[in-house]
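anyone seen this seq b4? input:
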Amino acid sequence: MLKSEEVEPAGRACCQSVTGSASELLTRSDTMLNILIVYTKNDKAINLIKSSLRKRDIKFKCIERSRLNKSAFRNKNLIIAVGGDGTFLRASHFVKNELLLGVNSDPKTKEGFFMSSCKNDFDKKLELFLNHKFFVEKHTRLKSKINKKEICLALNEVFIGNKIPYKTSLYKIFFNNKTEEQKSSGIIVSTGAGSNAWLRSAGVKPFSSCSKKFYFIVRE
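predicted toks r here
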């Protein structure tokens, strides 16, 4: 997650990212940026983002979130997710060492836990970013496999259960060299970032998003 906010009148910025080091991923020249904009269909805020980049002669490409694939992220060093947390999380599935910046396109109606900017202040935040007035924070993601095949990395959580969450599932769980047969509406396996989302609504106290630990809870 790349998160930017002013922390004092001097205009310093605080930025967060899923992975990566700013010193390694960015050069001193903004013309070297290779940007991918991920957006939600029919979201008009993307026009403001494009305008801010174009007036600085920064090149970029755009892709609608439902069309995302690994190749779209190739050779990119900054990903801008425009929308709400859903768009940010979708983009995070494909991020490796790229920086990821979230821009809330409508703070009044969209969840923005991961979003460090909005359509109204993006131009100002972009200027701070280009002047290297930010820092990078890493977040732990979950790596999972289904039948030995890896699925997308999860920034928030992995849900194991029926496609319809309220339906009951019968399964065996292996943990700490013990096996137990259970029947429930599913299991939530969460990262620190996810502990502020679904896990928190299940009554679990949030923990650090950079923690190497994960937490799982069996639903009723």
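The chain has a mean pLDDT of 83. Residues 145-218 form a domain with the Tumour Suppressor Smad4 fold (CATH 2.60.200.30). kinda curious what u guys think
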